[in-house]
Each structure stands twice: as C-alpha cells, then as structure tokens.
Amino acid sequence: MEQNQTVAAAPVKDKKKYTILYVDDEESNLRIFRMAFKREYHVLTAMGGKEAIEILRQNDVQCLITDQKMPEMTGTELLERVLPEFPDVIRMILTGFADIEAIVKAVNKCGIYKYITKPWDKGEMKLTIDKALEAYELKSDKVNLIKELELANSGLEEKVALRTKELAEVNKRLMDSIKYAMTIQSAMLISPDTIKEAFSDYFVMFKPLDIVSGDFYWFAQMYDGDKPLSVMACVDCTGHGVAGALMSMIGESLLNQIVYEYQVSDPAEIIENLDIGVQEMLNQSEGNNHHGMDASIIVVDHENEEVLFSGARQNLMYSHGSELKSIKGERVSIGGFAEQKRIYKKHVLEYKSGETQFYMTSDGFPDQFGGPDVKKYTMARLVKTLEGNLDKPFNEQQELLEQAFDEWKGSEKQTDDIMVMGIKL
Hints:
Layout: E1 19-23, H1 27-37, E2 42-46, H2 49-58, E3 63-67, H3 75-82, E4 90-95, H4 100-110, E5 114-117, H5 122-162, H6 167-188, H7 192-196, E6 201-207, E7 215-224, E8 227-237, H8 241-261, H9 267-281, E9 292-301, E10 306-312, E11 316-320, E12 323-327, E13 334-335, E14 347-350, E15 357-361, E16 369-370, E17 375-376, H10 379-387, H11 394-409, E18 418-424
Parallel strand pairs: 1-2, 1-3, 3-4, 4-5
Antiparallel strand pairs: 6-18, 7-8, 8-9, 9-10, 9-13, 10-14, 11-12, 11-15, 15-18, 16-17
C-alpha cells in the first residue's frame, strides 16, 4: 500500500521591497496612499516636514514623495532641506495645476526627479515610482562601478611592480569589472525596439575599440506641449576603453537630466547644458583636465516635418536626391574649461516623410588607418560610400559600411571606437 509523502518546497527568495516615504498634512491622503501601495513597497508616512526628516534619519528610504501645500513646511522647502543630507533619495512632489510654475522653478534647486499633478492615478503613480526606483538602482550601480574601476586603475601599476605573482588575479578582477561596465553600458544604450517606434528605419554601426566604448548613442521621446518630439544624439567622448566609458556614463547621465528633468528640447541648448555640466562635474574651472566630448544632436518635430540640429565638432549629413549634403557643427568640443560661455548654433531643416535620410558619425571610421598606402579612410571617402548606397535598405547599408571598413582596415589594428548612425524619416 502506497503512503503519501510530503515534499518540502524549495524556499523562494523574496523580492527586494523598497521603502517609500509619503508626506501629506491630511491623514486621509496618507491612508489612501498606504492602502494603495503597501503590498508593493514598504510605505512610511509623515504629516509634516519635521516628522519626515526624522523618519529619513531612522530608516533606509529610497523614494520620498511629498505634497506641496503644507502649513508647517512646503514640499519644496522639505526637499531643499533633505537634499544635502540625503542626496541619493529619489525626490518627487505632488502639486495642483496652480503650483506648476513654482515647482518648475524649484526643480534645479531641489533636485526633483519628477512632479506629479493631483489627483494622481494609482497605475500611473506606480509606473512613475517603479521608473524612479530603476533610476535609483542604476545610479547606485554606476557609482559603485566607477569607484571599483578608479580603484583598480589607480593601483594597477604598483601592484604589478610589487606583486608580480598576483598579476593574474588582479587582471581577472579588472576584467570582471570591465565586463560589468560593458553590461552597464549595454543597458544604458537604448533598445532597438524603442528607436523603431520613432523612425521608419534606422541603423547604428557600433564597434568599440576595447570591451567598453567612449562612443555612445542616445535617444529620447518627449513632448513640447502636445507636440511629440524625438531626440537622437551621437556622442564621442575623450579616450576609449575604461576612460571613455566613464566619460560616456557622465554624458548619458547629463543628457537624461537635461532632457527628462529640465525638459530642454532645443538641440543647441542641450549641447550648451552638456558643456556646462561636464565642466562642473570634472571641476575644470580649477583643474587642468580638458576631457570632454564631441556630439551631434537632432530633434525631430514629426508634426511639422522639421529636424533641428546642433553639433560640437560633428556634422549632420542628409540625403538630397542622389547626393549627401552636410550641415556643419561648431568647431569646439564640449567640456574643457572656457572663460566665456560657448555658443552652439541651431539649424532647422525641413524633410519629406519617407524620402529624407540623415547620418551622424564619430571620427572613428574616417580616422581608421588602412588601404594600400596605410592612410586614413577620410570623411570624403565615407560620404562617397554612403552616397553610393542611398537607394538601399538600411540593413543593407549597414552591412556594406561594415564590409568597407573591414576591407580598408585589413590587417591593421582598429584605432578608435567606431559609430555611424543612419535615420530615415
């Protein structure tokens, strides 16, 4: 006779539960929020700014959401108070339509991730919180990664000289860190499916010189009022490998801040803010470093069929019949301390939907050595290659570009990160 046997189930690892602090002077609002999200998050509540600060000091809080209008301390005053002591906490604010102008002015001062108009919808609020927590995790990963890479690089030469026997282990740890950097950088790059939603066709030829790259592409969709805009950037940072990757993380973080938080949609203003941000983050007004980046940025106005362009040592190429024309960017890079503010010009170009193609490139492809005389490929030769394939689908254009690059490089080493982008509107 068979006997029933009880098999113990394997323990399931609990998903990390983030801590949200919600501040409002009305108990009913606190109760509604707590009931709505207590299953997804660890929810703490406070009825005023002073109580909120004490809770922050006693708990590990990842996200702070506060109402704006409170008698003891307004939401913006609370966020300004907690910013120096808790800089890593994601900060959001709830506001009525009448307060939006005041909130927008306070974004820079308080470091607000996002403001949410009342009344809030549970689904939209959860989506906003989840995106904010993703940004929190990614920022934490970046900070930890940069510290690891800086530590590994600063001590590498001394370790090789003093402890030769440990070289293999040191190299393994460094390679693990660089491979992790590659994972972070790959996650940083926008997925093809997201870009496909904005353009009828596109390609990105992306060949890092080392495991990680100083070149990167960046994409965003935003709104100017009710008008949808698509922002595409081709960025070439100083250096390559780990040094270039660190700069690319700085560039990507600044672009996210400028476009998503500050809502800047003018490409010239985006580059000007990038220039200021790089100088401030690298403390270039007091140091001697001149690290920076070159970039070309386009903003596509789909309703008016216009492309806005601004460039820093990069040009925008576009198809005009069977030939490529070029709009030149400014001949100054981004970053490197300048006593006077740099001015970047905005160019406006009309396009015909389904007919116009645009191309942006870093200097890696045209600067590649090869050919029968071991010379640079040159920008003129790249333009000729692109022109010869304008009538072909973009996937075929990319294949022919890579074929031309490999044939030219031959047995020569790749000299820099490579990136060429094509977009069809």
